[in-house]
Amino acid sequence: MPVIEIENLSKTYRVYQKQEGLLASVTGLFRREHKDVHAVKEVSLKVEKGEFVAFLGPNGAGKTTTLKLLSGIIYPSGGTARVMGHVPWEREIAYRRRFALVMGQKNQLWWDLPALESFRLHQQIYRIEPQQYQETLDELSELLDIGRLLRQPVRDLSLGERMKMELAAALLHSPDVLFLDEPTIGLDVVAQHRIQQFLKKYQAQRQVTILLSSHYMKDVAALCQRVVIITGGEIKFDGSLSGIVDRFSGQKLITLQLAGDEAPKNLARFGQVVEEQLPKVKLRIDKANVPAALAQILDEHTVEDIVVEDPPLEEVIADLFSQVQTPVGND
Amino acid sequence: MLPRLTTWWTILRISLQERLVYRGDFALGTLMRFLPIVTQIFLWYAIFANLGTGVRITGYTYEELVVYLLLTMVARAFSSMPGLASTIARQIRSGDIKKYLTQPVDLLGFMFLSRLAHKLAYYIVAIGPFALVFFLCRNYFTHLPDAPQAAAFAASLVLSFLLGFYLEACIGMVGFWFLEVTSLLFVYMLFSFFLSGHMFPLDMLPQPFGEIVQYTPLQYLAFFPAQVFLGKIEGWALVRGLLVEVAWVTFFIVLSRILFHRGLKRYSGYGG
């Protein structure tokens, strides 16, 4: 049975529309125009136990809204969802004890106190047995390398350190399902990498079901076997990372290393010349034409080396995102 | 039950610790709260001094008035909730309220315990100045309550704490609809300042105002406890007064729950 089951889930926000200027502000006191924003449109999804799924999409695509719906923070406008058999927005205590939500932009720890105090509070509100609490805390401190920071007030920690603490706090009760909303936002490359490494290791050990939303490709490529692309509140793709390239890119990237002082002979007729730095030439050619083009090129040139590859994932996804003209929803 | 108690204890302890982080601010804030009462006493002193000795203003001598003001100060130490409504409204607006929706902890229960901790911290520091002021004015206390009156006074203080908490919590919950509650809060503060009897004894008011203010819940925040201490409400009237206060407390507990529930239905998760 799937851990997460979503069917035709929709969320529409009513947003107050304010025109520019003072006059509009005054009339806005009496009469307000609202616009319906469809943040999530009839999304259906099934996630099995132990899957690590990435929600990928531009800002305002509906990723965060979906995670909010699944954590029961907001009510849907339509559709159903079940997580481990619970309806999230009923907010049963039994459900709350079994999942965790970490938001990269939100702080759940007590700002002025050491993280250890927040952890102790979590031990109480999640009813974690003392022995299990100590074991989990030791394990998390080691994996995240936070042992020496536990007694420092949270306000004195760096952003990266704080994110580690947030993760530790969220994982103390060993949730079965974990929702991560942009967990690496604002972090430097090293800190991002550390968080990724940790998540990877933790997920492999515990077989937790994780839903991660991000617009950093690196997060996704490092962590997730399955990618769900959301734009404009709708699911555009659901499958493996490599599947994205197969599905959305009809082209191959060909790099030629020409011999000696060999000059390229009108290569543009095969496709787009991306880069020409002799003796190296990079071409973008439609997949269907690749065999014929290669034969012709080899026939006309002396070539030392050929590399045929898929275009970089970032490019494919950037293309995909930019196809959506008007981003909607709030993020 | 036991795990629940230890949870409560942990919340209480951690709130207390947080309260004591900014020691300077806390100490200053606590001591500064004595300034208004000092100005009030001087004000009434000036008024009475101008009218001559032994004068009564609407039945109060100078000494009785000072005693009344000191007693309302004690009552306000229980019933006033600085920053409660604005904290709730800010959490709604900023989205920090999510914590209480996803973690197995109740917003109102949590707020209640941390407010209790704030109050305890306040009493520990304020008891010194309180004792000093009462000692200096000891000769003004011509009436001391007997045991039943003292018990009723204690009960009225506890009830005033509950009333103050849930009343302000309700105002904070309005944040679900308006996001910004500062003005509403200001209006409430203004009314509560006068109608709780914090400024002057409510029985000084001419009719029909004196009668009308008896029907608002605000009088229980200061006036009622002081009257109980002074023995001005006795017997059946005292029992009835306490019962009405219990009814008000129940009303605001239920109202705060309803507002929270309805508010969440409206809540669309502002702020990321």
Helix-strand blueprint:
The complex is a heterodimer of chains A (331) and B (272).
Chain A: E1 4-17, H1 22-30, E2 33-47, E3 52-56, H2 63-70, E4 78-83, H3 93-96, E5 99-103, H4 115-125, H5 130-144, H6 159-171, E6 177-181, H7 189-206, E7 209-214, H8 217-223, E8 226-231, E9 234-239, H9 241-248, E10 251-258, E11 272-277, E12 280-286, H10 290-300, E13 303-309, H11 313-322
Helix pairs in contact in A: 5-6, 9-11
Chain B: H1 2-19, H2 23-32, H3 35-51, H4 62-79, H5 84-94, H6 98-102, H7 107-136, H8 147-173, H9 175-178, H10 182-195, H11 209-212, H12 223-229, H13 235-266
Helix pairs in contact in B: 1-7, 2-7, 3-4, 4-7, 4-8, 4-12, 5-8, 8-12, 8-13
Could you give the order of the helices and strands of chain B?
A: HHHHHHHHHHHHH
Oligomeric status: heterodimer
* Silhouette of chain A: globular
Largest interface: A-B, 36 and 25 residues
Q: What is the share of helical residues of chain B?
A: over 70%
Query: Major sheet of chain B: size, sense and barrel closure?
Result: none
Total count of domains of chain B = 1
Which whole number gives the mean pLDDT of chain B? 88
Distance between the termini of chain B: 36 Å
Radius of gyration of chain A: 25 Å
Provide a quick synopsis of the model.
The complex is a heterodimer of chains A (331) and B (272). By secondary structure, chain A is of the alpha/beta class.
Descriptive labels:
heterodimer, A: 331 residues, Rossmann fold, Alpha-Beta Plaits, 4-stranded antiparallel sheet, disordered C terminus, B: 272 residues, mainly alpha
Walkthrough of the structure:
Chain A has 331 residues and is an alpha/beta fold. Chain A has helices spanning 22-30, 63-70, 93-96, 115-125, 130-144, 159-171, 189-206, 217-223, 241-248, 290-300, 313-322; strands at 4-17, 33-47, 52-56, 78-83, 99-103, 177-181, 209-214, 226-231, 234-239, 251-258, 272-277, 280-286, 303-309. In chain A, the strands form three sheets. Chain A has a six-stranded mixed beta sheet, sandwiched between helices. In chain A, helix 5 runs antiparallel to helix 6 (159-171) and helix 9 crosses helix 11. Chain A is globular, with a radius of gyration of 25 Å. The two termini of chain A are 31 Å apart. Chain B is an all-alpha fold and 272 residues long. Chain B has one domain. The mean pLDDT of chain B is 88.
